[in-house]
Amino acid sequence: MSLLSAEHVTVRLGGADVLSDVSIALNAGEIVTIVGPNGSGKSTLLRTLLGILPVSSGRVTRNARIGYVPQKLALERTLPLSVRRFLSLPIRHSRAEADAALARVGVPDIADRQLADLSGGQLQRAMLARALLAKPQAILLDEPTQGLDQPGEAAFYRLLEEVRRDTGAAVLMVSHDLHVVMSASDRVICLNGHVCCEGTPRVVSNAPEYRALFGLGTQGALALYQHDHDHTHDCGHDHA
Hints:
disordered C terminus, alpha/beta, three-stranded antiparallel β-sheet
C-alpha cells in the first residue's frame, strides 16, 4: 500500500485545469522528485496531496504521517522568534526533542538564534527539523533548495538521503534543479499539467517528453546514474 497517492486527479483553479488526470504514488522509503517547467502545476500537486487544495475530480489517499517543508515560511522572518520556539509551533516539543532534531539536520548550535539571523541553508534545515519532529513516514518538500548555491543544494540533498536512510521516511520533493536532484532520486516524475513521463533518472532524462520540455542539453551527471531496473511510462500525448 502506498503512503500517499493521487488517482486520476484534476484540479481547477480560476476556471482552468491546472492538473489534468494526474496519478502518482509514493511508496515507503523512496525518494521521488517532481520536475517540470514553471507553471506546470508542481506546487499545486504538492498542496493537493497535502489536502490544502481540493480536487475537482479523482481521489487523494493519505496512509502516513506527513511532514511538510514549504517553499516559503508563512511567518514573517523579522518577528522576534527563536529557532527553538519556531520548532514548537503549533505543537510544543521538549528542549531535548528540539535539540535532537536540530542535531539530526546538522545545525545543533542554532536553537537560541533568531529566525531572522539564519542563512538560507540554516533556515531550510530548521524547517526540515520541524517537519521531522512529527516523526513522519513521508516528507514533502516544495523546492527546498531555492536560493541556495550549488554546494548548499548538494549538501541539502545529501542530508535528505541520510534522513531517509536513518528514519526510513519516504521523500517527495518538487525541484527546479534538474541535475543534482534527479541523480539523488530513486524515481522522477516529469509534470506539465499532466504526467509526461516517469521512471528512474536515467530513463526520464532520455525520454522524448522530457527532452521536449527541457532540451537535449539536460543530461549532465544524469548519464552517469544507472539503475538495473530502469523503467518508464509516458502518457503519449502533449499538454497544450
